[in-house]
Design goal:
The protein is α/β, with parallel strands linked by helices and 327 residues long. The protein is 36% helix and 19% strand. The strands form 2 sheets. Strands 1-2-3-4-5-6-7 form a 7-stranded mixed sheet. A hairpin with an 8-residue loop joins strand 9 and strand 10. The two termini are 34 Å apart.
């Protein structure tokens, strides 16, 4: 035993490329995450434009409408108690409980909240007036932007982490985008490992800092007929804060912590709040043609943990990339 410990302690640390390769192998079923493992990518800063880039051309009304139509995704019942009411760019998930709806994220703006969330719920046979909680995964406007419409019309309680409420209340930290609606006013504040309970459903909330200071990731049950599954919804994907090694390591640690929690709670479904990250659009298409008594397209069993392992190893690889550059 002592010899084994000694060997492990003296093992050569993995290089950035070795870590990236390990992440890609663990998350090979999630191609929407693979760009996190690209060690040649530029470190973005949310809200900024690359040096030398020109201002985007203003789209005509016809072009804007064509773009709107291209973003449309049919609202879909994914599990017996889970519904997709987002678009091709950003997800909004509705968890149906015995006492109302818990909504996760509000899209970019009020127009999208009305067109995708309200109209989508109605099309699915649900009543938007039943929205009791709106959980905002993090304080970027593509996730909170439609909250004003929903709060004014349906009066849900708005839930965010204390860290991200603080971020939105600090003009120096807050990121602006003309496409986004108004940020919410502080309502329900949660800390790590809080639980939102509504009717027969408990949603566990984990503060997973990195993408923002207080990104929230969720674990909750879903039903497929008589079979229960557990979703792990990662609340903020992407290194959009520049080459900050400490923060990238914090992101990697959050992913590792959440992967352990997901394993403990038997998570077998990986979801994101961006459809391109988790392949939701393609999986929903496969769901429509699913034959009786066949595997659910969203259920990956233990492989679902590979998504969080990728997030851990590949962001750690990016931190090591910075450390290697400075040596």
């Amino acid at each position: 035993m002592l010899a084994l410990v000694s060997t492990s302690a003296n093992a050569k640390p993995l290089t950035s490329q070795e870590l990236a390769d390990k992440g890609l192998k663990a998350g090979e079923n999630y191609p929407g995450l693979h760009n996190l493992c690209d060690l040649s990518s530029r470190f973005r800063i949310a809200g900024s434009r690359p040096a030398g880039s020109t201002k985007k051309r203003e789209l005509s009304a016809e072009e804007r409408e064509k773009k709107r139509q291209g973003a449309y995704v049919e609202p879909t019942r994914v599990f017996d108690n889970l519904y997709f009411v987002g678009n091709r760019s950003v997800s909004s998930w509705a968890i149906q409980t015995s006492d109302g709806i818990i909504l996760v994220d509000a899209l970019n703006n009020n127009d999208q909240a009305e067109r995708y969330i309200e109209d989508g719920l109605i099309k699915l046979g649900l009543n938007p007036k039943d929205i009791k909680y709106l959980i905002i995964t993090h304080g970027h406007g593509d996730h909170y932007g439609g909250q004003e419409y929903l709060v004014n019309k349906f009066h849900p309680k708005v839930v965010m982490s204390d860290q991200d409420w603080n971020m939105l209340e600090d003009p120096e930290q807050m990121i602006q985008n003309p496409r986004w609606g108004k940020p919410p006013k502080r309502d329900v504040t949660i800390n790590d490992r809080a639980t939102i309970s509504l009717g027969d459903t408990n949603v566990m909330l984990f503060v997973t800092p990195g993408h923002t200071p207080g990104t929230v990731s969720l674990i909750f049950p879903v039903q497929d007929g008589e079979t229960r599954h557990h979703v792990g919804l990662w609340g903020g994907t992407g290194l959009n804060f520049g080459p900050k090694e400490d923060r990238i390591r914090e992101y990697a640690q959050s992913a590792e912590n959440f992967e352990k929690a997901a394993e403990h709670h038997n998570v077998d479904v990986f979801l994101s709040n961006h459809p391109r990250r988790d392949g939701s659009v393609e999986k929903m298409q496969n769901l429509q043609s699913r034959a009786p008594d066949t595997k659910h397209p969203f259920v990956d069993g233990e492989d679902a943990l590979g998504a969080f392992q990728l997030l851990h190893y590949c962001t750690l690889a990016q931190a090591e990339r910075l450390a290697e550059r400075d040596q």
